[in-house]
Specification:
The structure holds two protein chains of two kinds.
Chain A: E1 2-10, E2 20-28, H1 30-33, H2 38-48, E3 68-71, E4 74-77, E5 94-97, E6 104-106, E7 109-110, H3 113-121, H4 142-149, H5 159-162, H6 165-169, H7 175-186, H8 195-201, H9 216-220, H10 227-238
Parallel strand pairs in A: 1-5
Antiparallel strand pairs in A: 1-2, 3-4, 3-5, 6-7
Chain B: E1 2-11, H1 15-25, E2 31-35, E3 51-52, H2 66-76, H3 83-91, H4 93-102, E4 128-129, H5 135-149, E5 153-156, E6 158-166, E7 169-177, E8 183-193, H6 214-221, E9 226-227, E10 232-239, H7 249-252, E11 256-258, H8 266-269, H9 279-291, E12 302-305, H10 311-317, H11 319-328, E13 338-347, E14 351-352, E15 358-360, E16 367-373, E17 378-379, H12 391-412, H13 423-435, H14 443-457, E18 461-462, H15 464-484, H16 496-520, E19 529-530, H17 538-541, E20 543-549, E21 555-561, H18 568-571
Parallel strand pairs in B: 1-2, 1-8, 2-5, 8-16, 14-17, 18-19
Antiparallel strand pairs in B: 3-4, 6-7, 7-8, 9-20, 10-13, 11-12, 12-13, 15-16, 20-21
The chains are: A alpha+beta, B alpha/beta.
Amino acid sequence: MEDISFKVNRYDPDSDKGSYYQDLSLKVEDSDLEKLTVLDCLIRLKEEQDGSLTFRHSCGHGSCGSCAMLINGNNRLACETYVTELIGTAGPDIEVSPLPGFPMVKDLVVDMGTLFAHDKEVKPYLIDREDSDTSEETLQTPDQLERIREARDCIMCGACTSACPTYWDNKKYLGPAAFVRAFRWQKDSREKDTAERMDVLDDKSGGVWGCNKVFNCNEACPKEIDTVGIIEKLKRKALGF
Amino acid sequence: MKTVKHDLVIVGGGAAGLRAAIEADDHVDDVAVVSKVRALRSHSVSAQGGIAAPLGNLPENEEDDWERHFKDTVRGGAYLVDKDACEILTKNARENVVELEHMGVPFTRKEDGHLDQRPFGGHSLPRALYAADSTGHAIIYALYGENVKRETTFYDEYFVFDLLTDRQKVNGLVGYEMETGELVLFRAKAVILATGGCGQAYDITSSGRASTGDGLGMAIRAGIPLSDMEFIQFHPTGLKGRGILISEAARGEGGYLLNGDGERFMEKYEPDAMELAPRDVVVRAMQRELNAGRGVNGEDYLHLDLTHLPREKIERKLPTINDLAKDFAKVDPSRQPIPVQPTAHYCMGGIPTDLSGRVESSDGAESWDNLYAAGEVACVSVHGANRLGANSLLEAVTFGKRAGKFAARRAAGTEFGKNGRDILSRYESKLNSKLNGEGSVRVHELKDKLTSIMTDSAGVFRNGEDLESALLGIRDLKESYSNDLILGDRSKSFNTELRSALELENVLNFSEFIVHAALSREESRGAHSRTDFPESDDENWLAHSRLIRVRSGEIKVDYRKVRAKDEREEYR
């Protein structure tokens, strides 16, 4: 048997003035240890110890983007973070907090309203299709598709924007997630009107110029998207290159 | 408590709901999508392998056309497919996928820029368009973007518990906002249920935790029948232990299934189609191997072997399952076989609708005035007794689009109905009594018992005796749910335990329907295999089941003939 110790952020808006950390521990069979994710542990803690422990989760395999949280100081998806990566250090094995930079709703749940509002601002769709004949497929070569392959993997979990120091200071800053999403549509060979979106991205306060290349976003992305690289490309595009 | 009004309210933000909203926008001003998870978190994002359409874009499938697609679908569905619905599905497939492409779905291309296609089980030619192996994600993100463009109203993280009905008409819905716990009355001129699947009734499932069949539960409580609920598809390749989907595309791209002796066992069962036989055939073969003790290391799993495929092909065409195998099974698919087992995947049955997506009434004689359903929650019956891979995304967009169009037209030609003044306070009491229950049983304890009953008795193989005792077991659990429940969280704000309790009510109810339907059908067909009735019996059973809860609480079953005349010979 292994005892895994947790430090979990708790906050109930109905009864707590502020958030605090709660110490919890979970007994795990040695043979189960290497199969266990942080999400598995949170579910067990909720079921076995405290039914009010609150967190989002859905698909359980890194596709839906629901369970991003701050785990031992890094923004990660709880469903694909294994406890064996985390245990054995000094202090509590696993410290879990809600994603930073977003308003806390309850325990590990944050308000993602701004993340999705910023996403809408960059127009996550084809503004004007290159080919208006909708009865036939538009041609797109594998090379053209390759340009958006990385950006289109984004699952909108918010890990990158939550990790961004510029976003912490300036909530008007659209943030790395919105830029990745913008890039995905901007570079789609079927997109004709790129100027309209570029105006949003070139904005002094909200646009790409707020990026100071801290690279927190790259480290946070569960899909390993080179977010800073994408923002740099958008900057060059804004300068007319 | 608050009341909101929209011409059309769609419940569910997956492929069917989002496609419906887009189409509806062409016909009516005010469309709202209500979803208990944000649209981009809907389980449609987990669809992997593809979406079928007979484009004939390859030299080897040039002769493909809708009639072949139609015949494959009817045959794969064990002839329980309604042919009029299937004709709509397949005839319009080209138009509907090309539309998706125009909305920006990043489908994988051939060198010449045309849409690529890959083989899928039960399809006689390569027919599945795909976006690597995250086709659902690619489609949902494009449909969502199109909705943003059209300024669809989204109620994200609102849980809907009931339809408000007046005879054959629906006046709205009752739900609550997760974040605050505030009750909301959604008034609507028309409603579309697009709440998705119900895999959470089983302990090993490819479905996310949100797939709790909420629309099925709402229908049952409103006295609406469910059709063909005995047909639950088990996908052959769920990742061992977790049930996470490993797409059929892995076999489409050349993967083998091996038993514990390293034998490619499909040779014994289906020497022609091998691993690309329809799913019901493959999963029965797998279960037989497992039951005979030929699992790997004598355990309850088999191997999906891709090691003979070039690493580059796996990385380029199957990147998602490559990652999933590495993350969740700790194997590198280009070097080691992937451990797999059958996983509850898809519900062929659901709320019966006509071809416009309108919900059929209990006697089947006429349809509801303004209630529609589309996608996995619905049963227009294009899948019959067993769905072919890559046909579910196609169904969701095809019939989502139709429901969107017809529901919006209906909304445009009608007025808001009236609801009783005390409706919200009645639901407030219901919520409060749930929150303050003084029992001793937690939600997950009941749910674990239920999923083990369902897995043991209503799985790949069923028999009368087990189904009988499952029915009793479920009734006990329902008793317990009503009388003994206690929530571990009593706060109003973002109470996920409360949501789970409300979902469990739905899961218990439709599970009883699944078992009842399975017990009633005394034959084997498609995904429904009775060991005590192993043969198909066209004479007596080539019909859709229709179950309804009558006022006494009992479930009544009747059967309806497959639509259009039986042209079986022609489709063989």
